[in-house]
Specification:
about 200 residues; NAD; Nitroreductase-like; NADP; NAD(P)H-dependent oxidoreductase; NADH Oxidase; alpha+beta
Length: about 200
């Protein structure tokens, strides 16, 4: 059995997809459960994940994806990571789902902050889920491309999101054989472990 590190060594930011290959629906279901199980501060879960496989919707998203349009079109599925944008909606959600202590933490430590800082805190939680998805993809042999190069407001309009704000999207699928960014062509480049990890 391959280790997690062996799988992760093989992952990379895919630049070119084979549009003819499709992801097994059961694998997509696993990825949906993976993001659902992502950690967040006080289990706040201030997020929404939209899995887009519909070709018409992908075509619309591609027009709002700047230089990532081809990845959106050729991938099998695009996952849009959004934060809750309506703070009152978020507060209702945690009242209904979190224990009293967690709600008290939010009320005492987060709620008094300016709106922009509250939403920045939401954003941090969403990016935790992004890391979980990329890790799950590597384990399940699905290629992925995280993309901040999107026009968030247009994404919101296309997806009909009034309570959520798109932050980042991830194209999912299978690499094209001639993708020049894959590790067999362009080896991974990372700073040496002893330069960035200290053991005390």
């Amino acid at each position: 059995m391959s280790s997690f590190i062996e799988h992760f060594q093989k992952r990379y930011t895919t630049k070119k997809y084979d549009s003819s290959r499709k992801i097994n629906p059961a694998i997509l279901d696993e990825l949906k459960q993976a993001v659902r199980l992502s950690p967040s501060s006080i289990n706040s879960q201030p997020w929404h994940f939209t899995f887009v496989s519909d070709e018409s919707t992908k075509q619309q998203l591609a027009t709002a994806s700047l230089f990532n349009d081809k990845k959106v079109l050729d991938s099998d599925t695009v996952v849009v990571f959004s934060r809750i944008n309506d703070i009152s909606f978020f507060e209702k959600q945690i009242q209904e789902n979190l224990p009293e202590g967690a709600v008290a933490y939010y009320n005492n430590m987060i709620k008094p902050l300016p709106e922009a800082e509250i939403k920045a805190w939401f954003d941090k939680q969403v990016y935790l889920a992004l890391g979980v998805l990329l890790s799950a993809c590597s384990q399940l042999a699905i290629d992925a491309t995280p993309m901040e190069g999107i026009e968030s407001e247009k994404y919101n309009q296309i997806l009909g999101h009034d309570k959520y704000h798109a932050l980042v999207a991830v194209a999912l699928g299978f690499r094209a054989e001639d993708d020049s960014n894959q590790p067999s062509v362009k080896p991974k480049s990372r700073v040496a472990t002893d330069k960035i990890v200290t053991t005390v």
